[in-house]
Amino acid sequence: MIVGVVSVACSVALYISNQNEDKQAQELTEYYLPQLIETIRNSTNSESSVQDNVSDGVTDGSQNSNGPVNNNDMPVFYIDEQGFVGYLSIPSLNLELPIMSETDYDKLQMAPCRFYGSAKTDNLIVGAHNYSKHFGEIGNLNAKDEVYVTDMDGVVYKYSVVSIDIIQPYAVDILTNEEYDLVLFTCTYSGKNRIAVGCDRIQ
Which residue of 10, 55, 77, 159 is 20 to 30 Å from 145, comparing CA positions? Predict the structure, then answer.
Protein backbone atom coordinates (compact mmCIF):
# COMPACT_ATOMS: atom_id res chain seq x y z
CA MET A 1 0.00 0.00 0.00
CA ILE A 2 2.85 2.36 0.82
CA VAL A 3 4.35 1.74 -2.62
CA GLY A 4 1.02 2.62 -4.21
CA VAL A 5 0.74 5.85 -2.24
CA VAL A 6 4.30 6.84 -3.15
CA SER A 7 3.60 6.05 -6.82
CA VAL A 8 0.48 8.23 -6.84
CA ALA A 9 2.34 11.03 -5.06
CA CYS A 10 5.13 10.90 -7.64
CA SER A 11 2.60 10.98 -10.48
CA VAL A 12 0.88 14.02 -8.98
CA ALA A 13 4.20 15.78 -8.47
CA LEU A 14 5.21 15.07 -12.07
CA TYR A 15 1.87 16.35 -13.34
CA ILE A 16 2.21 19.57 -11.35
CA SER A 17 5.77 20.03 -12.58
CA ASN A 18 4.67 19.55 -16.19
CA GLN A 19 1.82 22.01 -15.75
CA ASN A 20 4.21 24.59 -14.32
CA GLU A 21 6.62 24.11 -17.23
CA ASP A 22 3.74 24.41 -19.68
CA LYS A 23 2.60 27.67 -18.08
CA GLN A 24 6.11 29.09 -18.03
CA ALA A 25 6.59 28.20 -21.71
CA GLN A 26 3.37 30.00 -22.59
CA GLU A 27 4.48 33.09 -20.65
CA LEU A 28 7.82 33.11 -22.48
CA THR A 29 6.04 32.87 -25.83
CA GLU A 30 3.90 35.84 -24.86
CA TYR A 31 7.07 37.72 -23.96
CA TYR A 32 9.24 36.93 -26.99
CA LEU A 33 6.75 36.69 -29.86
CA PRO A 34 5.49 40.32 -29.91
CA GLN A 35 9.09 41.57 -29.90
CA LEU A 36 9.98 39.38 -32.87
CA ILE A 37 6.90 40.43 -34.82
CA GLU A 38 7.57 44.11 -34.10
CA THR A 39 11.21 43.79 -35.14
CA ILE A 40 10.23 42.10 -38.41
CA ARG A 41 7.54 44.71 -39.07
CA ASN A 42 9.97 47.57 -38.47
CA SER A 43 12.68 45.99 -40.61
CA THR A 44 10.40 45.40 -43.58
CA ASN A 45 9.22 49.02 -43.37
CA SER A 46 12.76 50.39 -43.42
CA GLU A 47 15.22 50.67 -46.30
CA SER A 48 17.93 48.60 -44.61
CA SER A 49 17.61 44.84 -44.35
CA VAL A 50 17.45 42.95 -41.09
CA GLN A 51 20.94 41.53 -41.61
CA ASP A 52 22.37 45.08 -41.62
CA ASN A 53 20.79 46.04 -38.29
CA VAL A 54 23.53 44.54 -36.15
CA SER A 55 23.11 47.34 -33.62
CA ASP A 56 19.55 46.13 -33.05
CA GLY A 57 20.75 42.66 -32.17
CA VAL A 58 20.52 40.90 -35.52
CA THR A 59 23.37 38.87 -36.99
CA ASP A 60 23.70 36.19 -39.64
CA GLY A 61 24.23 33.64 -36.90
CA SER A 62 27.68 32.62 -38.10
CA GLN A 63 29.38 33.41 -34.80
CA ASN A 64 26.69 32.26 -32.45
CA SER A 65 25.40 28.92 -33.70
CA ASN A 66 26.51 25.76 -31.92
CA GLY A 67 24.06 23.54 -33.82
CA PRO A 68 24.60 21.14 -36.73
CA VAL A 69 26.03 22.20 -40.09
CA ASN A 70 23.65 24.17 -42.31
CA ASN A 71 22.14 26.23 -39.49
CA ASN A 72 23.66 29.57 -40.44
CA ASP A 73 21.53 30.52 -43.44
CA MET A 74 18.86 32.41 -41.48
CA PRO A 75 19.53 35.76 -39.76
CA VAL A 76 19.38 35.58 -35.97
CA PHE A 77 17.81 38.19 -33.69
CA TYR A 78 18.75 38.31 -30.01
CA ILE A 79 16.46 39.10 -27.09
CA ASP A 80 18.04 38.89 -23.64
CA GLU A 81 20.96 36.96 -25.19
CA GLN A 82 18.59 34.34 -26.64
CA GLY A 83 18.77 33.91 -30.42
CA PHE A 84 15.70 33.59 -32.67
CA VAL A 85 15.36 32.97 -36.41
CA GLY A 86 11.71 34.03 -36.71
CA TYR A 87 8.36 32.56 -35.80
CA LEU A 88 6.07 29.70 -36.77
CA SER A 89 2.32 29.91 -37.47
CA ILE A 90 -0.09 26.96 -37.62
CA PRO A 91 -3.56 28.42 -38.25
CA SER A 92 -5.48 25.14 -37.82
CA LEU A 93 -4.07 24.81 -34.29
CA ASN A 94 -4.30 28.53 -33.56
CA LEU A 95 -0.57 28.61 -32.81
CA GLU A 96 2.05 31.31 -33.27
CA LEU A 97 5.42 30.48 -31.73
CA PRO A 98 8.92 31.95 -31.76
CA ILE A 99 11.68 29.74 -33.18
CA MET A 100 14.97 29.76 -31.29
CA SER A 101 18.13 29.59 -33.38
CA GLU A 102 19.71 26.67 -31.53
CA THR A 103 18.59 23.55 -29.69
CA ASP A 104 19.44 22.48 -26.16
CA TYR A 105 17.52 21.25 -23.13
CA ASP A 106 17.04 24.67 -21.55
CA LYS A 107 15.98 26.35 -24.78
CA LEU A 108 13.39 23.65 -25.49
CA GLN A 109 11.71 24.60 -22.22
CA MET A 110 11.37 28.14 -23.52
CA ALA A 111 10.25 27.82 -27.15
CA PRO A 112 10.44 25.64 -30.26
CA CYS A 113 14.03 25.34 -31.48
CA ARG A 114 15.71 24.94 -34.84
CA PHE A 115 17.23 21.47 -34.82
CA TYR A 116 18.72 21.61 -38.30
CA GLY A 117 18.68 23.41 -41.61
CA SER A 118 17.10 26.56 -42.93
CA ALA A 119 13.88 27.73 -44.53
CA LYS A 120 16.04 29.24 -47.26
CA THR A 121 17.47 25.86 -48.24
CA ASP A 122 14.21 23.89 -47.82
CA ASN A 123 15.48 21.60 -45.07
CA LEU A 124 14.34 23.27 -41.87
CA ILE A 125 13.69 21.02 -38.86
CA VAL A 126 12.03 22.45 -35.74
CA GLY A 127 11.60 20.57 -32.47
CA ALA A 128 9.61 21.47 -29.38
CA HIS A 129 8.28 19.96 -26.17
CA ASN A 130 4.76 18.58 -26.17
CA TYR A 131 3.48 21.43 -24.02
CA SER A 132 -0.13 22.26 -24.82
CA LYS A 133 0.87 25.67 -26.19
CA HIS A 134 3.91 24.37 -28.07
CA PHE A 135 3.81 21.16 -30.15
CA GLY A 136 1.44 19.15 -27.97
CA GLU A 137 -1.25 19.14 -30.67
CA ILE A 138 0.77 18.68 -33.87
CA GLY A 139 -0.34 15.04 -34.00
CA ASN A 140 -3.83 16.40 -34.72
CA LEU A 141 -2.77 18.10 -37.93
CA ASN A 142 -4.22 16.84 -41.19
CA ALA A 143 -2.79 16.52 -44.69
CA LYS A 144 -2.84 19.87 -46.52
CA ASP A 145 -3.03 21.90 -43.30
CA GLU A 146 -0.92 25.00 -43.77
CA VAL A 147 2.15 25.99 -41.78
CA TYR A 148 4.02 29.29 -42.09
CA VAL A 149 7.55 30.27 -41.11
CA THR A 150 8.41 33.98 -41.05
CA ASP A 151 12.12 34.71 -40.84
CA MET A 152 13.82 37.83 -39.49
CA ASP A 153 14.01 39.26 -43.02
CA GLY A 154 10.22 39.27 -43.05
CA VAL A 155 10.13 36.50 -45.68
CA VAL A 156 7.13 34.20 -45.21
CA TYR A 157 7.57 30.55 -46.19
CA LYS A 158 4.31 28.68 -46.75
CA TYR A 159 4.08 24.90 -46.28
CA SER A 160 1.48 22.16 -46.58
CA VAL A 161 1.41 19.10 -44.30
CA VAL A 162 2.06 15.90 -46.24
CA SER A 163 2.83 13.30 -43.55
CA ILE A 164 2.39 12.64 -39.84
CA ASP A 165 4.45 9.78 -38.46
CA ILE A 166 5.11 8.18 -35.09
CA ILE A 167 8.81 7.34 -34.97
CA GLN A 168 11.09 5.63 -32.49
CA PRO A 169 13.09 8.01 -30.27
CA TYR A 170 16.37 7.07 -31.94
CA ALA A 171 15.02 6.83 -35.49
CA VAL A 172 16.54 10.09 -36.64
CA ASP A 173 16.41 9.43 -40.39
CA ILE A 174 13.34 11.61 -40.88
CA LEU A 175 15.12 14.39 -39.01
CA THR A 176 18.23 14.35 -41.19
CA ASN A 177 17.39 12.91 -44.61
CA GLU A 178 16.00 16.19 -45.96
CA GLU A 179 13.04 14.45 -47.58
CA TYR A 180 10.74 17.29 -46.55
CA ASP A 181 11.10 21.05 -46.82
CA LEU A 182 9.99 21.41 -43.19
CA VAL A 183 9.75 18.89 -40.36
CA LEU A 184 8.15 19.59 -36.98
CA PHE A 185 8.71 17.07 -34.20
CA THR A 186 7.95 16.47 -30.55
CA CYS A 187 7.69 13.63 -28.06
CA THR A 188 4.48 11.67 -27.58
CA TYR A 189 2.84 12.21 -24.19
CA SER A 190 4.21 8.89 -22.99
CA GLY A 191 7.69 10.06 -23.97
CA LYS A 192 8.40 6.70 -25.60
CA ASN A 193 8.21 7.88 -29.21
CA ARG A 194 8.20 11.02 -31.32
CA ILE A 195 5.65 12.63 -33.61
CA ALA A 196 7.16 13.95 -36.84
CA VAL A 197 5.18 16.15 -39.22
CA GLY A 198 6.62 16.46 -42.73
CA CYS A 199 5.69 19.48 -44.84
CA ASP A 200 6.36 20.54 -48.42
CA ARG A 201 6.78 24.17 -49.35
CA ILE A 202 4.06 25.75 -51.47
CA GLN A 203 5.70 27.76 -54.23
Answer: 77
